[in-house]
Write a structure and sequence with these properties.
- By secondary structure, the chain is an alpha/beta fold.
- It has one domain: Uracil-DNA glycosylase-like domain (Uracil-DNA Glycosylase, subunit E), CATH 3.40.470.
- 41% of the residues lie in helices and 10% in strands.
- The radius of gyration is 35 Å and the shape is elongated.
- The structure holds uracil.
- Uracil binds next to helix 6.
- The site of uracil has 13 residues, from helix 6.
Length: 265
Amino acid sequence: MEQGLDFHTALALLDWQVELGADEAITDAPINRYDVVPEPAPIAAPAPLPTFTPGAPPPLAEGPDPVEHATTLAAHAQTLEDLRDAIAAFDLCDLKKGARNLVFADGTPRARVMILGEAPGRDEDMEGRPFVGRAGQLLDRMLAAIGLSRTSPDPETAVYITNVLPWRPPQNRDPTDDEIAMMLPFVKRQIALAAPDILVLMGNTPCAAILGRRGILRLRGQWQQSLGLPVLPMTHPAYLLRTPQAKREAWADLLSLKARLTAPK
Ligand code: URA
């Protein structure tokens, strides 16, 4: 005959279990853990193996290379309007996300003089046109002093103006080398499509982009040859606003530009 536990023994056993930490009844019947077969963990589907074609470059782990992608888009542009659309569709430069407007160009395509600046500032970002702030107004006065204007329809006296970067960098910080490199294919195509006779580089960023050199205070006023064009580095008008004593040298550079334009071809 089965003998039940008396009250005091049962209570002592219970106390002992509580002391061991078993202070909660989970199921009515006890579970023998040695009998429980653990459920197998679901097996994750194996990652597909990369396909490999002999002779082909290995597939890229990341997204498209920005410089390659820009080069392809730029090469397809047959007109400046195409190029503007291609830049607007280019999503690999993060500056685009923080900019209000794309700043493409101003002035007259096919003007004899093309001016390449650095990047839009606050005013340019708001208006969507290059060189419209204080530096731009000084640029207009400098150009007027040698008979050039961005509003002239005549290629002889007109200018075509753009920047290395079409989007404003946050807080007007300097463009990074990566940003310059990825936008350079578009800039080169823009120069080819605008077809100027002379390219003026305003400041360090365009010198870095087109000549692969910085040091505008040494480069300024020294004619170079690049992309099949005579190229004149000049100090940026924003620098001239901060450093009025440098205007004298800028005037000499403007006269040098004027002399090139009026020299017999
Ligand atoms: N500075 C530049 O280089 N470009 C502009 O468009 C305005 C200021």
